[in-house]
Amino acid sequence: MTTTIAPPPRQAPPTTPRRARKRAEPAAIRTLVSPLALASRRGKAVYWTVFGLVLFLFALAFLFPVYWMITGAFKSPDELNSNPPTLAPEHWHPGNYGDAWNLMQLPDHLWNTVVQAAGAWLLQLVFCTAAAYALSKLKPVFGKVVLGAILATLMVPAQALVIPKYLTVADLPFIHTSLLNNPAGIWLPAVANAFNLYLLKRFFDQIPRDVMEAAEIDGAGKLRQLWSILLPMSRPVLGVVSIFALVAVWQDFLWPLMVFSAAPDNQPISVALVQLSQDVPQTDLIGAMVIASVPMVVMFLVFQRHIIAGISAGSTKG
Questions:
Q1: Which long-range contacts (CB under 8 A, 24 or more apart) does 229-233 make?
Q2: 118 within 8 A of 242, measured Cβ to Cβ
Q3: DSSP annotation of 9
Q4: How far apart are the first and last CA of the chain?
Q5: Residue 153 CB contacts under 8 Å (≥ 6 apart), including other chains
Q6: 25, 89, 155, 197: which is deepest, by most CB within 10 A?
Q7: Are residues 63 and 112 in the same domain?
Q8: 254 and 185 within one domain
Q9: Is 42 exposed, middle or buried (0-12, 13-18, 19+ CB in 10 A)?
Q10: How confident is the model at residue 276 (pLDDT cuts 50, 70, 90)?
Q11: CATH for 295
Q12: Does one domain contain both 151 and 202?
């Protein structure tokens, strides 16, 4: 007679501890004010009051200096230096802008700035795009080493590169030609921009490999892939790089001062404002500053959507 051993009864699964249940539940968002309090009439009133006050203070901090500069050019020299100062001109002098335009030769210096900024922008866009495409898609030998060396230049202070850059421009290696008092002295150093190159490379890395392989199957070469596929898809980041390049040249002071030290007529607006500030009234100088800042403000207002799109373009993979 055989005896069978019954299996042990199944035990109920252990109850989940309270700590485990709390971890499984989504964590509640903690704020200084509860959502219930914000939903009330008093909470909404307090919220919008604080929000409006903070927004007003920030707008005042950023816009008041601009207002003070614009209205200062409409004042007379005595009113500008009066104590206490006046918030609005007592007597408007719109002719100060015309005097600044003529006395400081703003058309010539603005044109010099446009030529220097446009050349630097074009060369930087061409060479940085080509280098970023090579490092991202062509995968050259020692490409990571080259990229690391390029990014290492970002750690070097710009002031430490002024003297080597000046010596190079004053006597180009192998050619032994000086680029001083020449717009090329502004263009060529601006091409070597490690930040914009890295920005373009990171964007090219986000473009799927399948797109490039499909173009290669259709018979497109490497240059054709860059021109017909990558560049149209890279309009947002190209817009950001363009704005960075233009603003960097437009607001630079030390390097144009060194390059055009012997040619005052070829100086950009940033250098001319300082060089001519001793011979003109202060109101005319302020008016010239307002005129010099208008192109950059207009460019920002026109291309602000491209700036936001370009900054957020590389955040997600396409």
A1: 230/133, 230/137, 230/204, 231/129, 233/207
A2: no
A3: P
A4: 74
A5: 192, 194
A6: 197
A7: no
A8: yes
A9: exposed
A10: confident
A11: 1.10.3720.10
A12: yes
Burial degree of 164 (CB within 10 A; 0-12, 13-18, 19+): exposed
What is the predicted pLDDT for the residue at 31? Answer: 64
**Is the four-CA dihedral 163, 166, 172, 178 of positive or negative sign?**
negative
Residues 310 and 234: beta-carbon distance below 8 Å = no
Q: Kindly give, in sequence order, each residue whose CB lies less than 8 Å from that of residue 286, ignoring residues fewer than 6 positions away.
A: 69, 72, 73, 80, 96
User: Amino acid identity of 165?
Assistant: K
* 166 and 58 share one domain: no
Q: Is residue 126 part of a domain?
A: yes
| Token code pair at residue 313 | 């373009």
Of 97, 112, 147, which one is at a domain's C-terminal end? 97
Q: Which amino acid is at 291?
A: I
Most confident of the following: 30-34, 110-114, 242-246, 279-283: 110-114
Verify that 86 and 105 share a domain, yes or no.
no
Same-domain pairing of 165 and 90: no
